[in-house]
Amino acid sequence: MALKHKAAWCGSREAGLSDDSVSEFIERMHECGINAVFVHLKGGDGLLYWPSKRFPDAVAPGCDEFDLPAALLRECRKRGMQLHAWLIDFFEGTNGAANQRHPEWSLRNAKNQPTTSEILRGRPVDLTWMCPARRPGYTDQWLVPALEEFAAMYDVDSIHHDYIRYPGDMAPDQFCFCDYCLEQMPIFNGFVSKTYPDEPFYHELYDRAYLEAHWEQSPRVLPRNWHLLDRESKCRFLLEGSFFQGGRYDADYFFYTYRTFWVTEFAREAAAAIRRVKPTMKISAAVFKNPIHSGRFIGQDWRQFAPYVDLCVPMDYRDHYPGSFDVYLNLFEESIESQKFWARDFESLWIGAAINFLFFEEERPLVAAERALEQGDVDAAVRSFAAVSERVRKFSPPVAEAMDSLAAGPAALESALAMLKDFRCQTPVGYYPADKLHRLIDRIEATGVEGISLFCDAHLDEYGLRSALRERFGAN
Predict the structure, then answer these.
(1) What is the pTM for the complete model shown?
(2) What are the residue ranges of helices labelled H in 409-475?
(3) Spatial separation of the C-alpha atoms in residues 233 and 283, rounded to whole Å
(4) Which superfamily is assigned to 5-173+257-359+433-473 in CATH?
(5) Could you report the per-residue pLDDT of 414-468, keeping only the tens digit for each?
(6) What band does 164 get if pLDDT is binned at 50, 70 and 90?
(7) Given pLDDT bands bounded at 50, 70 and 90, which one contains residue 475?
(8) Contacts of 468 (CB under 8 A, 6+ apart)
(9) Nearest 5°: phi and psi at 116?
(10) What's the mean pLDDT in 374-393?
(11) Is 455 in contact with 422 (CB distance < 8 Å)?
(12) Rounded CA gap, 386 and 368, in Å?
C-alpha cells in the first residue's frame, strides 16, 4: 500500500534564518516528494528556535529577530505540506539556560553527579539530562511552559516529542537519584507510612508458602536504619534491595515503575497544556521500537502515551537491531507488526527510519581504514579497506589505487589518507546503494502503515539519495 505520509526529520540550521533560505529548504523537501517535515525547534543544546518571550535567554542566536517557525509554516502551507515542531524534551546543553539557572534540576546518580560525569564510548558525556520527576523542577517550570508557549504561537500540525525518556545508552540504571527522587521515591512507592514512620508493620501471621505472598498489608519496606545510611547505600537499596527483608531482590521493579510514571505524567501534563491553548492541535512522539523494553531501560513505556499523543513514530533504526541488512529488514518488518498492536490506541502510526544506518557495509570499512591510517597501522587499514575495495574502485579508481600502493612507504600513506578523507567527505553518488532505501520503503509499505519519517534531511545529500527519493516518491 502506498504511503500517505512521507516525512523527514530536518535540522533548523539547514533551513537558515531568512525567507529565501527557508523557501529553498522547504522546496528541496517538496521536490523529493516529502509532504511532512519534523523541524528541530528546541535543541539538545537548550536553545529555542523561536522568539520566546517566556524564556528569552534560551533563544537561539538570530531567532529573536527572525521568526523561523512562522516562515516554515508559510512555506509548508504554500505547498500543502505538514509542519511538525520537533522538540527535544529531557536533555539540555551543559551551557543551556535551564541548566545554568537551575543545576539542581538535572538527573543525578548515587554519587550526586550529573550525566556529564559519565563516560560513553571512551568520551565524557556532554549532555545534561534533566529530571522528569522533580516538582517544582524542569518539567513543570520550564519544559511544559515552553511547549505551551509554542502551541499558543503557531498552528503547526503537531508538537513532536523527542527524548521523552531517561538516558539509556550510558547508565540506564543509575538515574535518577537526585535529592528529590531519593526522598520521594520511597514515599511514592509506599515504602514507609507518613502516619507511622517508625512502625515496621510486620504481618500478623506468615502462614503462606512464599514470603512475597504476604504483600497486601504493605509493610514498611525501608530498613530501620534508613536514616543512618549514607547516600550511596540508600540508592543501592532502592535499586538492589528487597520489598521484604530476606525476600527476593525486587526493589528495582519500583525504581523502574517510578520512572515510567513520571515520563508518562509529563506526556499528560504537556498534552493538557497544549490542548488548553490549542484544543485541536495534534501531538506526536519519536519512541523506541519496543515499549516493554524501553519502559524498563529508559522509562518510556509508550503504550501509556496513547491518551496524550496522537501520532506514534517508532524509531526503527538499523542500529537498534543486530545482524546484516537482510536480517535488519526481517526484524524491522516483524517489529512493525508488533508496533501496530502496541499503537492500536493512537490515532496514527508512522515508521521512523535512519538513512545513515542503512549503509554499515559500505561505510564502516572506510571509517576503520581511515582511523587505522591516522594511527599509522597500514596492515589494519588494508584489511579494513578490503571489504569495500572493489566497490570504491568502481566509483573512484584513484582512491583504490592509492590504497593498493600503501606498501610504498610513508609518503604513500599520507597520500592515501588524504584521498580517503576526500572520498568520505564527497562520496560519489551511487556508492551508497539506493536499492537499500527502496527495499526499506518496500517493507514499510507492505505492512500497511500510514507513513514514514526519514532521519534526516541532511543525510539525503551526504549519502547521495536525494534524486533516488525524488524518483521513488515523485513531486507532491
Answers:
(1) 0.95
(2) 410-425, 434-447, 457-462, 466-473
(3) 41
(4) Glycosidases (3.20.20.80)
(5) 999 999 999 999 999 999 999 999 999 999 999 999 999 999 999 999 999 999 9
(6) very high
(7) low
(8) 434, 437, 438
(9) -70, -10
(10) 95
(11) no
(12) 11
Any idea of the CA torsion for 443, 444, 448, 454, to the nearest 10 degrees?
-170
Residues near 291 by Cβ (< 8 Å), separated by ≥ 6? 300, 301, 302, 303, 342
Q: Which residue has the cell 547505600?
A: 233
* Lookup: cell for 158: 503537531
Cβ-contact 166, 132 below 8 angstroms? yes
3-state secondary structure of 351: strand
Q: Are strands 123-124 and 36-42 parallel, antiparallel or unpaired?
A: unpaired
The DSSP annotation for 98-155 comes to HHHH-GGGB---TTS--GGG-EETTEE--EEEB-SS-SSSHIIIIIHHHHHHHHHH--
How does strand 158-162 pair with strand 127-129? Answer: unpaired
Q: Nearest-CA neighbor of 181 among 246, 282, 123, 259?
A: 259
Q: What is the sign of the dihedral through the CA atoms of 399, 401, 402 and 403?
A: positive
SS3 437: helix
Longest C-alpha distance within the chain, in Å?
84
**Using CA atoms, how far apart are residues 405 and 311, in angstroms rounded to an integer?**
54
Stretch 170-191: mean pLDDT, rounded? 95
Beta-carbon-side half-sphere exposure of residue 107 (alpha carbons within 13 Å):
26
Q: Which of 167-176, 307-316, 334-343, 443-452 has the lowest mean pLDDT?
A: 167-176
**What is the total residue count of the chain?**
476
Beta bridge partners of 98: none
Kindly report, as residue ranges, where domains of CATH 3.20.20.80 are found in the chain.
Answer: 5-173+257-359+433-473
Cβ partners under 8 Å of residue 333, min gap 6: 443, 446, 447
Q: How many CB atoms lie within 10 A of CB 136?
A: 11
d(CA 465, CA 454) in angstroms, rounded, equals 12
